[in-house]
Write a structure and sequence with these properties.
Helix content: 40-55%
Bound molecules: adenosine-5'-triphosphate, magnesium ion
Number of strands: 14
CATH superfamily of the largest domain: Histidine kinase-like ATPase, C-terminal domain
Strand content: 15-25%
Distance between the termini: 40 Å
Structural class: alpha+beta
Strand order of the largest sheet: 4-3-7-6-5
Radius of gyration: 51 Å
Shape: rod-shaped
Number of helices: 8
CATH class of the largest domain: Alpha Beta
């Protein structure tokens, strides 16, 4: 299955996008607040400066005099090194300062203060004007004091603050991404736990999954449990079907064979006898094929959900030996069994079927009056069952093709068989994590077939 993206990554990206949006928003808000704050500070200082100058106005006789207070300009220098311009206007006449400083700007009413942004000498200035009525002799005269300052310093402060805010926002964004990844992973942990619980299971473990899960996962767990339940039922049905089918095919064939044997005994002519012998042989072939095909199906089915039982290979070897002894006796073949307790993990039915096929071959392909030797032993971490016969052997290699389905050797001519025995044995061993070794008997003539399996750990 190719995964179609990752929920964790998608969640992280989504949360990171939200974090990025919030970062940009907060950066623009902080920047604009910083600029506003800096501008308000400049306005306040400009107003204080203009007020200080206005308060220094005094009248001497009919004249209005002004001695510019040093503090009025020093306070402006405190905020930045910007250029400062001023203008004191007495009833339309310049008392002091730059007479051309924003002449168009409306003068505020007495006691009022006005702010404005003007362009003067190619620079943008923030200007504040304040009007005060001063008595010149007996006449009240309106005096307007204007103080202006360039905004370079303020802009620099605002830019500086904005840069700091940007750095903080980037740091916030990075932290948010890390936290998002952490949050995404920990929220998906429950899902991983369920996936691991399913993955950890042995193939034959069809118990329902635990019901305690977060609400969001409950439907998934329920569906999985329903699926496991259906799978279990279907597996049980298949097993029953295979057993039933084997029984139904073999029983009538055995009856037909028995009838054919009876007919053979009472047959007179050679031609009739020959025909009945060919019939019996065909029945044997069909019966063997049906049996092997069903055994093969059983292997495929049981290997899918392999049991994990502790199996003593010596017991399996004894069972197979006693089951095949009558067949061997018919050919005067002796079976010698040398076994020690060797425990492996797996399916006893399958292991028995594998060994039965190998021993069956040894008896089937050997000449009468020979011996078949079976040895069960443990070597390092490996269990071995060796079946050695004194027959014609497997011929020249390679022997791999003998484990292919329906492949029969040249020596199989005239011998009942379907070419599935070694396929079954090989598939059983592979399902158990083992392998089959086909070789010539090194100590004499005949074949040597070894079933190799991993030993059960922790068991003697
Ligand atoms: N012990 C043996 N000695 C000689 N030849 C063997 C031996 N075991 C297997 N073979 C060869 O390997 C071939 C494949 O064996 P396999 O058991 O798969 O099929 P089969 O015995 O022909 O049919 P069946 O499915 O009935 O067992 C045989 O046809 C035979 O030629
Ligand atoms: Mg065989």
């Amino acid at each position: 299955m190719t995964p179609s993206g990752s929920i964790g990554r998608r969640l992280t990206v989504l949360l990171a996008c939200v974090a990025a949006l919030l970062s940009v928003l907060s950066w623009s808000m902080v920047s604009s607040f910083a600029r506003q704050a800096a501008e308000r500070t400049q306005d306040n200082i400009l107003a204080a400066s203009a007020t200080t100058i206005a308060e220094a106005l005094r009248s001497e006789g009919d004249e209005i005099r002004l001695e510019l207070p040093y503090a009025a300009f020093s306070m402006l220098g405190a905020i930045s090194q910007d250029r400062v311009f001023y203008h004191v206007d007495v009833d339309g006449q310049t008392l002091t300062g730059y007479s051309d400083l924003a002449p168009d700007l409306e003068t505020p009413a007495p006691g009022q203060i006005s702010f404005g942004t003007v362009t003067y000498r190619q620079a943008t200035l923030r200007m504040v004007s304040i009007t005060r009525v001063v008595l010149a002799g007996a006449d009240p005269v309106p005096v307007t004091v204007s103080v202006a300052q360039t905004r370079d310093g303020i802009s620099a402060i605002a830019t500086d603050l904005s840069r700091t805010a940007a750095l903080l926002c980037v740091a916030f964004f990075v932290l948010a991404v890390v936290l998002s990844a952490f949050v995404a992973r920990s929220s998906l942990n429950q899902l991983t736990t369920v996936a691991e619980a399913v993955a950890r299971r042995g193939p034959s473990d069809l118990r329902p999954l635990r019901d305690r899960a977060p609400t969001e996962l409950a439907p998934l767990i329920q569906s999985l449990n329903r699926f496991i339940d259906r799978l279990g039922t279907s597996l049980r049905r298949s097993e029953e079907f295979i057993t039933e089918a084997a029984h139904r095919v073999r029983t009538p064939l055995a009856t037909v064979r028995a009838q054919a044997e009876v007919a053979l005994h009472s047959a007179r002519g050679d031609e009739e006898k020959g025909r009945l012998r060919r019939m019996i042989r065909a029945i044997d072939e069909s019966s063997r094929s049906a049996g092997q095909l069903l055994d093969h199906a059983t292997v495929a089915f049981r290997a899918d959900s392999l049991a994990h039982d502790a199996i003593d290979l010596a017991v399996i070897a004894r069972t197979v030996t006693s089951a095949l002894e009558p067949t061997a006796e018919m050919k005067d073949i002796a079976i010698e069994l040398a076994s020690e307790t060797v425990i492996v993990r797996g399916d006893g039915v399958l292991l028995e079927s594998a060994l039965r096929n190998v021993v069956d071959n040894a008896i089937k392909y050997s000449s009468p009056d020979t011996t078949v030797r079976i040895g069960v032993s443990a070597d390092g971490a490996q269990a071995q069952v060796r079946v050695v016969d004194e027959g014609p052997g497997l011929g020249a290699g390679p022997f791999d093709r003998f484990t292919e389905r329906f492949h029969r050797g040249d020596n199989a001519e005239g011998v009942v068989g379907s070419g599935l025995g070694l396929t079954i044995a090989n598939e059983v061993l592979v399902a158990h994590g083992g392998h089959i070794v086909l070789a010539q008997n090194e100590e004499g003539r005949g074949a040597c077939v070894t079933l190799c399996l991993p030993l059960a750990s922790g068991l003697a």
